[in-house]
Design a protein that fits this description.
Residues 295-566 form the Radical SAM core domain. Residues 600-685 are annotated as: Disordered. Its cofactor is [4Fe-4S] cluster. Keywords: 4Fe-4S, Iron, Iron-sulfur, Metal-binding, S-adenosyl-L-methionine. [4Fe-4S] cluster binds at residues 309, 313, 316. It is a single chain. The chain is an alpha/beta fold and 685 residues long. Among the domains are: 10-194, Cobalamin-binding domain (Rossmann fold, 3-Layer(aba) Sandwich), CATH 3.40.50; 486-604, no CATH class. Helices cover 29% and strands 12% of the residues. The strands form 8 sheets. A 9-stranded mixed sheet has the order 3-1-4-5-8-9-12-11-10, sandwiched between helices. A 3-stranded parallel sheet has the order 20-21-22. The longest helix has 18 residues, at 464-481. The protein is globular and about 75 Å long.
């Protein structure tokens, strides 16, 4: 293998002496050859197995010639919509078009179509009618079976049918893509490749499917939301590679979509090999004149240490995409990559992150998972930590110490998220002390999401008392160290289960701790999460009981405004929300009030003789509250699809998607009170 970018033109192919590519990889993002980007991993894995891969990045979907620049591939096309789901990339939760795209040159929007995977595949099928097409990445993985689509507000078919692709690779795709390539290379027709774990295919004959679990048909789930919820939960409990069954979904046309069992997780040695491949670790130089690719900025000096998450948050798609089993790289592999970073001319001494979907998970939650998989109907941390949970930060501490001691390294930050409910179960204070002393940049971002236990239960998160216990311990540790460091809590509005009562309670909590977030995440119903199933059906698929869902844009706006009640722009929404919740006692001059009465309402709420009453916001103004929009999804990029690292075209950055999907877009909650986030800007010479 030569140390160079993969071919993006005929000229590049000629320089390598290629007459034909084995695979042409069509992606919705600009071409970035870095192990934090799924397409880079998949293309390099194929290359390491002897296959010639060419890249067509962001082709013009209105021009058939754009898909033909590398000619006909010998084995087939690979298609990925991008590191982020294209609909999340293009639209806010309010369904408004975004202004930038961090995965495009110069952050330019509009260089890829909506539902890019479907559009690209149909373009390929129009030109190359018989060429095998394999789809993957976050967009395909989470739409592998019939799913609720928030943007059209309806249930859509499997993306395999709408795209006209032959096979879908879901989850982390290193195993499945090599097996698919080897099968095609051996001469097996694409329609006969039905036996590979981690793939989905379509057929009209189920005679060769071994012990399938028949899901309700597409037509049945369209007619009945309860049927949809039951079907979804069947899928949810069949995501573990050790216990899952083959799932089959039928369609009126006579087609069946068959989901094979998930691929086995990578071993540590396999993970090490993946991250040791000859990545260029940057965007293709052809983007230089256009301003580069913004998404690389935060990720260039970050390190992936693990995959998977046994946290099990209901709004997160990690269970469907990466799975609940933790996969890790060895210390030697991570230290080797870190050493490589220190020789980069742009390295300033700061490693931005060492982690994954959850930074402090470095082993499976219990020993039995290594042979028997995860529990089907039981979570490791929710509602209480499992008695078999293994809580140990020793390995992570050892890794961080090795990284800190590297020459040229000034500071090693942890930004991909600390699971506080796991940390608080560790009776040894060493990790908390090391975290506060060496790995926090003035503020630690954690995700309590809410303070109402009723809402937290719907989220699959621990009770608020667990978060309060963590805060107490964190403050005490910092006081002992003589440090003034803060916690920045990630908060979510309008999640299923959140009534106006719970939204007001959250506002009161923020008042009491004296914190006002600049950005707020309004719940985003993205495909294949428990919370999205609740949003669509009004049913908790775990219990099949009804759940309250705030759906109207106006109610969602009120709930979001309550979290940012100090923002003058939100005044009318806050008044309306408090009135609806019968909490007008929070409008007035008492220190417990959220807002002052408008001078027009002084007769209703009272007035002070010494004040004109014209100031509608409590003293302190709108400190830290500059965005009343969609909050944490404002920033498009770099740490988004948290938890989609390394999959077939999946965002290998921090998601999403997120991911976890609701973390697709790096939630940079920067508040003057809490200091500024250190951020290394990627500058080109």
């Amino acid at each position: 293998m030569s140390k160079d970018y993969l071919p993006i033109s005929r000229e590049d192919m000629n320089n390598r002496g290629w007459e034909q590519c084995d695979f042409v990889y069509v992606i919705g993002d600009a071409y970035v050859d870095h192990p934090s980007f799924g397409p880079a991993i998949i293309s390099r894995v194929l290359e390491s197995n002897g296959y010639k891969v060419g890249i067509i990045a962001q082709p013009d979907w209105k021009d058939e010639n754009s898909i033909q620049i590398l000619g006909t591939p010998r084995l087939g096309f690979l298609v990925c919509g991008g590191n982020m789901d294209t609909m999340v990339n293009h639209y806010s939760v309010a369904k408004k078009r975004r202004a930038t795209d961090a995965y495009s040159p110069g952050g330019q929007i509009g260089l890829r179509p909506d539902r890019a995977t479907i559009v690209y595949c149909n373009l390929i099928r129009k030109v190359y009618k018989d060429a095998p097409i394999i789809i993957g990445g976050i967009e395909s993985s989470l739409r592998r079976l019939a799913h609720y689509d928030y943007w059209s507000d309806k249930v859509r078919r499997s993306i395999l049918l709408d795209s006209q692709a032959d096979v879908l690779s879901y989850g982390m795709g290193e195993h499945s893509i090599v097996e698919l390539a080897d099968a095609l290379n051996s001469g097996i027709a694409i329609k006969d490749i039905t036996f590979i774990s981690g793939t989905v295919y379509k057929t009209r004959d189920l005679s060769s499917v071994y012990e399938p679990v028949m899901l309700p048909s597409y037509e049945d789930i369209l007619r009945d939301k309860e049927v949809f919820a039951r079907s979804f939960y069947t899928q949810y409990v069949n995501t573990d590679p050790f216990t899952a069954k083959c799932l089959v979904e039928g369609y009126e046309s006579g087609d069946y979509v068959v989901q094979n069992v998930p691929a086995k997780p990578l071993s540590q040695s396999e993970m090490d090999r993946v991250y040791a491949l000859p990545y260029m670790r940057d965007y293709h130089p052809s983007y230089e004149e256009q301003g580069g690719i913004p998404a690389i900025e935060e990720l260039k000096f970050s390190l992936t240490s693990n995959r998977g998450c046994f946290g099990g948050c209901n709004f997160c798609a990690l269970t469907f995409h990466q799975g609940r089993m933790i996969q890790t790289r060895s210390h030697e592999s991570i230290v080797s990559e870190a050493t490589l970073l220190t020789w980069d001319p742009e390295f300033k001494g700061y490693i931005n992150d060492v982690g994954g979907p959850t930074a402090n998970f470095r082993h499976t939650s219990c020993e039995k998972q290594n042979t028997k998989g995860v529990c089907l109907n039981k979570q490791c941390l929710f509602p209480k930590p499992c008695s078999n949970l293994k809580v140990d930060h020793t390995d992570y501490l050892s890794l961080l110490k090795k990284l800190r001691e590297l020459p040229k390294v000034k500071k090693v930050f942890i930004r991909s998220g600390i699971r506080f409910d796991y940390l608080i179960e560790d009776k040894d204070d060493t990790f908390m002390k090391e975290l506060c002393e060496n790995h926090v940049s003035g503020q630690l971002k954690v995700a309590p999401e809410h303070i109402s236990d009723a809402v937290l239960s719907m989220m699959g998160k621990p009770e608020n008392s667990v978060y309060e216990k963590f805060i107490t311990r964190y403050k005490k540790t910092n006081e002992t160290l003589g440090k003034k460091q803060f916690v920045v809590p990630y908060l979510m509005s309008s999640h299923p289960g959140s009534t106006m009562k719970e939204a007001v309670a959250l506002a009161e909590y923020l008042r009491d701790i004296g914190y006002m977030p600049e950005q707020v995440q309004d719940f985003y119903p993205t495909p294949s999460t428990v919370s999205t199933c609740m949003y669509y059906t009004g049913i908790d698929p775990r219990t099949m009981k009804p759940v309250y869902v705030p759906k109207s844009p106006h109610e969602k706006a009120m709930q979001r405004a309550l979290i940012q009640y100090r923002n003058p722009k939100n005044y009318n929404l806050v008044v309306e929300a408090l009135t609806l919740a019968n909490r007008t006692d929070l409008i007035g001059y008492d220190k417990k009030c959220l807002i002052r009465p408008n001078y027009m309402d002084k007769d209703k709420f009272g007035s002070r003789p010494s004040e004109s009453g014209k100031n509608s916001v409590r003293k302190g103004g709108a400190r830290g509250a500059s965005n009343s929009g969609d909050g944490r999804e404002k920033n498009g990029s770099s740490k988004g699809n948290k938890g989609s690292r390394g999959g077939f075209g999946s965002k290998a950055g921090r998601s999403a998607q997120s991911s976890e999907l609701n973390r697709f877009e790096g939630r940079k909650t920067e508040n003057k009170k809490y200091g500024k986030t250190i951020r290394n800007t990627h500058k080109k010479k």
